[in-house]
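So, can you check these tokens?
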Amino acid sequence: MKKKVYIIQPTYRLKDGKLIKELPLNKPMNVDYYHRQVKGIHNAGIHIGAFFMLGLDEDDEFTFDNVYSFFQENKIEVPYVHIYFPIPGTAMAEGLKSDGNILENYFDDYEFRQTKFSAPCSIAYFKSAGLSKAELEAGFVNLFTKTTSLKNIIRRVLVSYIRIAALILKMNMEARKKAKSMRRNILKPESSVISYIPSGLSKV
């Protein structure tokens, strides 16, 4: 019997020990419940890819450590994080725009920097309620780097089936490559994702 790998992509934010799910449900969910769910999924022989979105209003300086702890405690095989990107025309993007909390012409800048729309973006193109632009960007890159350390990746590939281990390794190494690229950009003043401020940011 063939083993299948299912990648589960919940969009939740951690806040005060609770997971808050984004639209269409916007109610707090107990982390302990998801600990049990993850354990049950693992017991069934299914490996998990968990995707978390950062930078929404409930996030604060503790969010990055909370997300990292969730990945580690639940032994998530493919952990992934993104800074929220306001897609033009969506309700959230329009809300940020009407409140004056979004950069002018931000999508042009995003397209210039990101050749692949699905690539994780390390730039905050909006104002978060709980974090400054610099705090959000630095916290994201640090979390992404820590999550994709070689030590953590090695722990994730220690599974019974070689083909599944190879897939987990491939996905984690691709994420590590992106994390290293982000770190290199930070070290270049002329192209720093942390210090770069488009002209429209004066409104934020």
